[in-house]
Here is the input.
Amino acid sequence: MKHCNLCGNAVDENEYRVYPRPRKPNARGLIVCAQCQRDKPRCAVCQTPMPPARAELSICAACWREGLNCRACGARIRDNFLMINGNDGPYCEKCYRDHAPCDLCGAPANDGAVLYADGRLVCQRCAQTAIADPRDAERLFDRVVDLVGATLGLRLNVRPRLMAVDRARLVELARHATANIGHADGKTLGLFVRMGRKRVVYVQELLPRILLIHIAAHEFAHAWEGENAPLLRDLRLREGFAEWVAYHALVQLDAPKKAAQMLQRHDDYGEGLRHLLEVEREQGIAGVLQYCRTA
Ligand SMILES: [Zn+2]
Ligand SMILES: [Zn+2]
Ligand SMILES: [Zn+2]
Ligand SMILES: [Zn+2]
Ligand SMILES: [Zn+2]
Here is the structure.
């Protein structure tokens, strides 16, 4: 009989997961029961569940021991470091202090950062996987829409189309959107707009692939809400549902790390997502849709 390394409870076969140490493939890894996988805080670097006492530090003991490197400059971190809410890290203090943040992910935009024509400063990582061809962005959007249709049962009478626009245009659209049920400020990355029979998901052009999957699924979910849950006013549920859809899309399209980071957010998005995953565990996917329809 095995025991969960976090809570000590006995676990049956298939009821636990082993989290290996990436840098020590021969180490035994941490056995974590299903409950602890859900409830325990996660290490911001390796996403492994950890004892609640480490939540303040946000980094697990193993990562501390193995040493931390700044994700921007690669240097070994000897003292203070920073994490970015819902995103990668850690970053050293010097990078954080000396470089402006990436407009897309918030990471310090140091060597290799790119300044786009619309004024966005984008870090090397985000620029490297940017989808430049609008047709590629449309194809990825179609893939996301088909996927959430097939796996979550989200279908719409009027299928929205995707349009990639520059930042200034998106801000302007967000200001004028009459039926905008998304969120709108200078940082807006995507927007769902309904005008008569027309449905459009607008996104910032040149988004990195994983971010585009996230935003496309998130905004498509708002479109679903418009048709199926028009009375859903509660911000935490409305954004939580959009994040729940994006979470599933990211897991299925091979971005589990990004999905795990979404769970860590301490705001309406993260709280709403965790709440709906709980509803899903109890009542299944259909239960989540029903919950949002009638909330
Ligand atoms: Zn446990
Ligand atoms: Zn860790
Ligand atoms: Zn650095
Ligand atoms: Zn970035
Ligand atoms: Zn939203």
Remarks:
- The chain has three domains: 1-59, 68-128, 134-294.
- The mean pLDDT is 91.
